[in-house]
Amino acid sequence: MRDPSQMQNSYLPAMPQDERMESVKAIRQSSNDQNLTWYECPNGHIYAIGNCGEPTSSGNCPECNLPIGGSSYQLHDGNKKKDIASMCDKTSKGHVLGDAQSHGNQIVCERTMNCVTTAIVRFLLHSSMLLGTECEHGPQPINRIIQPDPHNVLEFLWRHLHNDVRLLSVATGKSRDDCIFILHKVIDNIFQTKVADDLQSGFHQLLTSKNCRKAWEENFTAAYIKPALQDLDEMINESNKTLSEDKRLSNDPLMCLLNATIEPEDLGKLTDTSHVWQHRSRITIYSIHQALENEQDDDNLLVLKHFMEKEKHLRFVRYLPDIVQLQRLLINKFNRHIDASEAINLTISTFMNQLSGLEKAEFKRLIDTFIHAWNSLRQDVAAIVKLPVPKECFLENVTYNSEIAILLPTRQEYGLCCIGLVDFLVATQNEFLGRYQNIRNEHLSKVEKKADLLQSHLIAYDPDRDLLPLILSQCQYIVRPMVGNRVEYNLTGLELQVIERFIRGRAFINCKFDQLLFRRDVRNAAIFENLRNNIPQEEFSSKALQCSILAELKSYQDLCGCLASLDIAIGFLANYKPEGGMLINDYLRDKLAMPQNKGLKSATASRQCSLKHVLALWQLLAMEKAVRLINNSQDPFDGIGEDYRQKLNDEDKNNLIVELRFTKLDQLCGELYEYIVLNLSHQSEEDRTKWTISETLEPYYDDKHAYAEITGLDSLPENITLSHAVDAWKTIAQLYSTQE
Known about the structure:
The protein is mainly alpha-helical.
């Protein structure tokens, strides 16, 4: 970091990366077949089929053990073809950890480095970056390396340095002072150790690829860190002894006591001897990492090694039932009752203020669980889960001031956070059990239905209440006056207890979880067409009836409530065929058991609108809501892509206004709005941007109402196409609103 400007495009050590592309490269290197066809298992792990590229045999995913491949050219359920060419490497260059406060106590292991080595390398990296801010160009070159851009680069790096020491303390179980000594020892080792010239030159390369970074980390760890960490406890004890023998400190009784150099006079009175009560290094879960690191036999304790490698993620699997329960409750409350824009504008705290009593307490418990799990795992979810979660969701912690959309399980935008977290937890358990099954050759069951999933199927444990007592039961803490203390672990016994307590009897999770539908999700042409086939639809008999209904829905809240009830009814009517003569309000109350306060809010509509008017009523209310939104400078077309939002130039807009004199505005406004919402808000392979509005609406209206037409439709300018659909509708709606 002497010249930070040279590191702008470097892959910095100890930064996370996207592992999917590495899997692809490994498969390619291990295969002689150049015509590989790529697929994904149900958990998103990539595999390849050679020869013809079609599935003719079955196997099990080496990561999660779920079935892969297929037979007779048919894939197993959940498997799908993967276009590798379109899969981009999400690994970012530079510093990508974000702010130190967002990491909490989470210990990480990057690539071949363990958690202790990762913490040390990150400390050295942040120290180097801090020194780099003193270069001749100031802190700006360092600032450009960091993503996202920090407000104050010096404070940002200092916070990371403190956090690196804290995480090193957690990983080693040593005090902060001991960790500072460890870092000094590593730095001293860097200056004192002589390495081969080719290796030394490699440490000064710019790390322009992920492979260069991985090689750098492995060589740096082997040359400087591992030698410094050999016999760590003895090294620290020797350091303390050196301190106690320092002439400047040797006369200090407190220093002698702290460093265990005062031998007790009477070993029979241990309870009265301060030596027994001196501070000792804590035994933590992460102490096992160091013990396993010193294990010489690489083929021994494979289950325990893999468990400790994944423990930072496995500890959160216990939250899966609560998160799924939160999803279920939110689906019951919001399914088809809310739009994406409303979910983004509604905060969690505002939602909680609408609750009371036991319901509020239950939601608070479940939401707190989600927030803790998401804030702890969001960086890992970003790196591993392949869903297009918005990047801003990973930049800040979720709080009660965040959008409730983050909690809603949908396949859109913010809702992908909730789905991504569940997918991550399920994949974490399945991947670990798959590796365990391969190691132990034990058969494990599968859970195929969500209703069958029990807590006993999960690797569910509390790190402090369940795992730590197991570790303590398998260790010997030996106190040696004048020599130092030593901790010895029965790792074989610990592995057996971990298997018995947390792994045996657990199951692969292969079930699908419910998802929430927004109001607009029932608004597509296919659903409306199914409804028309079930119940022939009619338009309103008079303009007066429409005006009377709208007059009774002056409240925007009542209008939205009435529209939400219709959306629910349409979803059911598209699949069932009741009598068309039944009143809509009776259907909502008697068939759907909807409370009276959530039905139609208009007395006129309740008395006169039957099921054969349900789509006419929906169009009337939906258009009225959209008109009110544009009058308040809001966008009524949530989810419509930019392809259909091109602006009309002044000449085309004026020509459109002139031709609108010959049209029936309310009819044109309603039909164009319906077409946009039903046909343009859902992705289609067909490019409709060049279709003219007049030629599009004519067959669309004719399909709904045989031998009928929209008055004056043929007079619309032919150069106004669906690429101008949103702007054209706004122009029509504003003119219609003015006339009304």
